[in-house]
Every structure is written in C-alpha cells, then in structure tokens.
Amino acid sequence: MTFAGKTVIVTGARSGIGFATTQRFAADGATVIMADVRDAREEAAQLAEAGNDVRFVRTDVSREAEVQALIDGVVSRNGEVDILVNNAGIVLARTVPDTTLEEWDRLLDVNLKGAFLCCRAVIPLMRQRRRGVIVNVASEQGLVGAATNAAYTATKGGIIQLTKSMAIDHGQDGIRINCVAPGPVKTPLFDTFVEGVEDPQAELRGFLDATILKRLGRPEEIANVIAFLASDESSYMTGSVVVVDGGLTAM
C-alpha cells in the first residue's frame, strides 16, 4: 500500500494506536497531521527528522471551533483532506451509579462528539471532490458489554452506529467510512484503565485470558488494519466494523 500524495489527519495521535497509525501512514508516503490535545511537537519533530512529512496541530476534538480550525488549516496548507482517522478517546472505569455527570459528559464529548465534529467538518470537503476515506476507532467493547466500563462502552457503541449511518448517507458521495474495533491493546490508554480498577493485576489477567491468543495486541497491529481500510485495497468496503481483538469476541 502507498499513500504518496495523500493528506491524512489522525486524532489522538500522540501515543498508542494514534502514534502507530501516524508512523504507518508516514512510512507509506502520506502527509500526516497529528491532532491531539496533548503536546506532540516532540513526536512530530522526531518523525520529521527521519524524513517524514508530519506536523502537529494541538486540537481538542470536543470543541467545535478547534476542530474547524484544524480542518481549515490543513486545507489552506495542503489543499484537501484525503483520509481522516478518528482515534481520539479517553477511558473511565466506573459503573453507572459511580459515574458523575461531568465524567459522563466528558466521555461523550471526546469519544463520540469528537468524531462527529471531525466528520461534520471533513465530509463536505470530501463530497465536493467525490472521494475520501474515514476510519473510526471504536472498540470490541462497543459490541459486547464490559464490567465497570459503562460510559466508555456506550461511546464506542455509538461510534459503530455512527459509522454505519454515515456510510449509508455518503456512499454515493464517493466517501467510504469504516470502523476498526480493537480488543485489549498495550497502550497508555489501556494502562490507565487497568490501573483505575480495584485489582489491576486481576484485571490484566482477565483480559489476557479472554483472548484466544492469550496476549495483548500491539498498536502497530491496529495501525496496519487502519491503513488497509484507508487504502484502495479495501475499495469495496464501507459501513464495515473490523474486529481486531485477538479472538476475544469469538469466545
């Protein structure tokens, strides 16, 4: 696969799956804009020094004005957005009675509204050119339930349904929209979730035992699937949810 000449935006790009995805697209020739609320200037500079076309734009995807500024800036500098990867997300280890309204709102703002805002800003541009690809990052927990994780699973289930509905609405516009649903992957986000429960070691063992492969995924394994969904190799795919979970949901 090659992405030479393509402009790609990856949200939540500073670490984990987002950073691995940035690396993958950059290695395959794309111009990549790393969007993250955290400072990723050092990570972008390291990739640029290695000869990649990468830059960082600080963006809180839950804020409409910042999302629009991101897209406007990319279009002004690069002319178009070919691929959008909605990866930004946060976790919260809580049951519903233990979740505050502020925590609930923050989860939905980042995980679900953030993807909505980015898609709403990008789709009209892609529709004008009658081409474009969006890949949303959900979770296997958007397909199955999970203990002490109610708000997070709700947002990821929302991402899956948002993906399907947008694919239906915009397939005739030349826009393909798919979703990847990772299982447990060794990322800072995963570590944050595990460390937030009462017994982190038991929680980790539970994740490992739940998979057929008996291990955590690696960020680059998810990035490979995202790259496939963004490439012409998957040109007959839209509205799909690709589960990459080590076999967790098969059992």
Q: Which class do the helix and strand fractions yield? A: alpha/beta
Mean pLDDT equals 97
Q: How many helices in DSSP terms?
A: 8
**Largest sheet, if any?**
7 strands, parallel
Number of strands: 7
Strand content: 15-25%
Question: What value does the Rg take, in angstroms?
Answer: 17 Å
Widest beta sheet: strand line-up = 3-2-1-4-5-6-7
User: What is the H/E order?
Assistant: EHEHEHEHEHEHHHE
End-to-end Cα distance, whole Å, is 32 Å
Question: Per the principal axes of the C-alpha atoms, what is the gross shape?
Answer: globular
Low-confidence runs of at least 5 consecutive residues: none
**Proportion in helices:** 40-55%
Structure overview:
- The protein is α/β, with parallel strands linked by helices and 251 residues long.
- Helices cover 47% and strands 16% of the residues.
- It contains 8 helices and 7 strands.
- The protein has helices at 16-27, 41-49, 64-78, 101-129, 150-170, 188-195, 200-210, 219-230, and strands at 7-11, 31-36, 53-58, 83-86, 132-137, 175-182, 241-244.
- It has a 7-stranded parallel sheet with strand order 3-2-1-4-5-6-7, with helices on both faces.
- α2 (41-49) links the parallel β2 and β3 (53-58).
- α1 (16-27) crosses α8 (219-230).
- It is globular, with a radius of gyration of 17 Å.
List the helices and strands and how they pair.
Blueprint: E1 7-11, H1 16-27, E2 31-36, H2 41-49, E3 53-58, H3 64-78, E4 83-86, H4 101-129, E5 132-137, H5 150-170, E6 175-182, H6 188-195, H7 200-210, H8 219-230, E7 241-244
Parallel strand pairs: 1-2, 1-4, 2-3, 4-5, 5-6, 6-7
Helix pairs in contact: 1-8, 3-4, 4-5
